[in-house]
Amino acid sequence: ELFIEWREISEENYVTTVTVYSLSGQSVKKQPVDKGANSLTLPFREYPAGVYIVLISSEHRFRFIPRITWI
Known about the structure:
- By secondary structure, the chain is an all-beta fold.
- It contains no helices and 7 strands.
- Helices cover about 0% and strands about 50% of the residues.
- The radius of gyration is 12 Å and the shape is elongated.
- Strands 2, 3, 5, 6 and 7 form a 5-stranded antiparallel beta sheet that branches. The chain has a two-stranded antiparallel sheet with strand order 1-4.
């Protein structure tokens, strides 16, 4: 499993979607996030070992992109 936790940006600007991409740019998982949530757990065992990019999007287009290495 992949556990992601974030701090609330503001009451008006909250995380809306978490998307996981392969390094080739293919979207492998897109998960909507409930308003007010500050974390998300995604099942990750179904994906092959490798490096993935996680895009965290908010209501007002803030984006945070960590790189995840799955071994």
